[in-house]
Amino acid sequence: MTERPSALDQYRKLIADLPQGMAGSVELVAGQLSPTAERLLRLGSIPHGVDLAIAQQLLPEVSADELEAAAEELRPLSFVIRTSEGSLMHDEVRAYLFGQWLDAHDNAPKKWGLFKNVNRRLMRYHAKLAETAEGEALALAERQRIFHLTGANRAEGFAAFEKLCRAERYRFHLESCEALIKLMREYEPIFSARQRNWLDYYEAKLEIDLHHHDRAEQRLNAMLERDSLRDDPGLRARCIFRLGTNHKQLRNFAQARAYFEQLRSFAAKTPEAAELELRALQGLGALLIEMGEHEKADEILGETVMLAETCGRHHEIATAWNALGILRRKLGQPVRALEAFETALKHLDLGGEAFRPRQVHNNIGLVYADRAEWPAARDSLERSRDIAREANDMNGEATALSNLGRVYLALELRSEAVAAAERAIQLFRNVHNWYGAAMTKRGMARFYRREGRNDEARAAFVVAKELFVRAGADEKATEVEAEIARLEGSLKSWGWLRWLLTIVGGAIGFIVALILAALLLIE
Length: 523
Known about the structure:
2 strands; two-stranded antiparallel sheet; mainly alpha; 80% helix; 523 residues; Arc Repressor Mutant, subunit A
């Protein structure tokens, strides 16, 4: 298969083929502007919006009054959109002007040097904003910092993108990952083939997380067809692994198993044999647990632990022991499960992991809950919750809170249980984990049903069903629909019973009245 034309060549062809209308109009307008306004227009296509502070980073040598005059000159233009925070450009116009900067990468060194210098200033500006920002403002400033770092230094920027993308995905901040990938796509014309491949890989992982399974499958298979992937066995292996993960989520277990087995065979032929086989064994072990093949899963996870220890990487060793603990819990071996989880915690500590113990503490809490050791379960789950909060891991916090709801109920802390569940649902929604939200809402519905709060139970079941549908979990949605039907059936039966008791009660009252009247007559 021949290598596709470079993204930069494709972009240049696109520019050449553009209708003269839009490009010609922009150039015509630019030619009528004052020199400062034209510079501000062209430089203003680099950031994603321009206010006075940004304008000062674009043209630091220009006075504030002259910048304001230039901005005033641009405001009436039809492709400049005014906002409360400054000005934005129409997407097509910005793409055209930004593309001209990228086109300078190969054929205009002086212009490219200016582009890099402007991005350095903007990168430092957003880094300064990030120092005092919080919440979404912090996330936005950090994304913009990485975008401009990439413009200043592609290698450093891409490395920073990868680090943040992995961290945000770990915390289940999928919208942030999506926004970050979209920003990186703007630089695709000047990325190397390797960088484009990795960008596609991160997007495929995100598509799996968002349950866009068909898109992920197509993207990963297309990647495996590329000549450039032959020189990157590590990435090729990751693509095979993600295909297995994708089919595992779809419960296509046979296909998922085939991919993990394919990865084991492929790993043996690469320089990274041990590391890649470890990845294959981890995927296969988790799959076998879900398939209920516990004996085979135990064998595979045993191999995983030994291989991880041979590699000497504490994170991988901890991952293997955590998976083994999950299996032992499913096998009803709580003591051995706790031993596995404690070993995982030890290796996470040795590896200097501050936040990954969150999942292990959650699993320990579940073991204690299985044994009805409620105070110990509460302690472990609250520790998991606290670590997640510190890491700003909303999905991890929601998971711990959802499990804490059950523990609080067992401790007869009903109001705390409801508050924990409601907060969990809110957090799951925030990160678009519809399945987690649905499971928690169904748990609340069952609690309301046991409490005799039938109207609240029915409303909660309806929401749970909607959330399962949104998560693509149609089987679970059908189960909840059956629970709704049973609840409504019992309510109807109770309605008929109440009507019958009312009739019978009335008849008995009438008979008693007659008897009393007869007695009075006798007296």
